[in-house]
Here is the input.
Amino acid sequence: MPETLIQPLIELAEAYQRLSRDGLFVAELDDMLKNFAGRPTPLYLAKNFSRKLGRKVYLKREDLVHGGAHKLNNTLGQALVAKHMGKTRLIAETGAGQHGVATAIVGANLGFETQVYMGEVDIERQKMNVYRMELMGAEVIPVKSGSRTLKDAINEAMRDWASSFESTHYLLGTAAGPHPFPSMVRDFQSVIGKETKEQIIQAEDRLPESIVACVGGGSNAMGIFAPFLEDRDVELIAVEAGGRGLGRTDKTADNGASLGCGDDGVLHGALTKILQDPYGQILESYSVAAGLDYPGVGPQLAYLAEMGRVKPKMADDKSAIVGFRTLSELEGIIPALESAHAVGYALREPQTLGDLSIINISGRGDKDLATVMEYENL
Amino acid sequence: MRISEAFLRKPLLIAYICAGDPNPKATIELAKRIAVAGADIIELGLPHSDPIADGPTIQAAVQRAIAAGMNTDIYFETVAAINLDIPKIFMGYYNMIYARGLDKFVSDCINSGISGLIVPDLPPEEAGPLREACFKHGVDLIFLVAPNTTPERMEIILDQTSGFVYLVARVGVTGARSDLLQDTKSLIARVPGSVPKAVGFGISTPGQASEVIRAGADAAIVGSACVDLIAKGEIERLEQLVRDMKAAIIGAKSKAPIVC
Here is the structure.
């Protein structure tokens, strides 16, 4: 991290540490999560899907969070921190647009000026979300540098923050980047795992044998995994974007699978697994799901995968589309293309799930209809 | 030449160019012309795909250089072919160093005649292993301080930096600016006189170079302004800019200091 950003990061870490132990702050956040975001979200026994897989599969319904994805859990938390720090402006990066939308929501609701950096390529594939952000008063700034996707949007937001930190909070959307972001985002998203644990014990009187979540940067995965890390019998399966396959060129990778195919490196202020060339240039990743199209991954997931606690797996575009269709047809739930990677993996390798499994449906798929129609040439 | 030797003849002009922009051969020629025009130290940037500390001018140069095939192997070949009697400094991002292996990277620096490294995304807290490698090979590792660096961190940075300390003239990213802030002058005043101090980020005119020297800096760093002229192919204007900035710096030495 550049020296200019060190002090803002230290101040953020201190403010977060103080607030996370402050009863009033915690109560304020809980109230917003309940009455504004719509928590707790259901843990739903997907009967038809379970029958197809020959085992019990529950879905954690983060698609029902206000805004259509788990992203609001984090933006609410960080925006309240920013408010307590006296900031008046929020900036964010977004890939699929879900985090941008979640930032626009809190910006409007809590009275921040909001600007969202979004790669030109992503703006093209997520027009609806761009309009949603604008409708809620956020300005979407197209990023024209580099691969014009999520990583470049993060670069641009960091450059902005390097001169605007006095008034501005950088609301990073995933459990990646420099400290304190990975810890803070994990903590705010852990509400997913905490609820899940209570709900599955209530419903089944035992813990699941596996939990499956998709991974781009890793916020929904860390959120549902974190409360289960000590429960060694629960297999934690992180499904990355297999994209078009394992191919690579000098500049691009055909996937977004940093845990599966990446090497150690430093990106956006963290030592983690990165898709890079032998010289250390970051590759442009690829996935049909814009939210998984990131050449890095959160450092905690990289560590957990290295020590074997989290099992990294892949689902390619095709599996994700199959997951998208299957869950829609069998359960009447259209998952986000990101979450559809977790569903697609479960369909492909049900035997790895055990008798009782939970899939984190991190978001809903309405935003992806145009992408899927195009993919299937409808 | 060692950086400390160069600072015996302060005040200095330090010029930055992006290696490989527009191509490696041109970089060798440009470095020589900039040195002849009066630069006392030359910074040679190694292009990285994600230059988060850089503004649009250097970002564009980096993209051109990478598109023209620049990589770390070619970088060291290019730098080795620049025979100058002024210090050459590496400037680049940490992942490029990490990917090559710290010790190999620093030893390649030595073998191509580099006398110092500037790594703008590496804070001193994370720099232990690279510092060790630099110390072992006798290469300077130069750290940056910014206007918002606290006094406590300033102490740590001044303790760790060698060669000189790089003062970031303003918050934000690299790139030409029209004004020079009071912040810059206060920052110069905050750094004790025992460490050579060079000011960069936003220094693009002879007037600004003169101002930072009069405010007490030992060197002015010009980057984006050089890169911009290279992008336009205006090499004579580049040489003129370097000559004018050097003259302004030498002129500033004799003038009364600006009181902050």
User: Anything to note?
Assistant: The first strand of chain B starts at residue 12 and ends at 18. The longest helix of chain B spans residues 235-254. Chain B has one domain: 10-254.
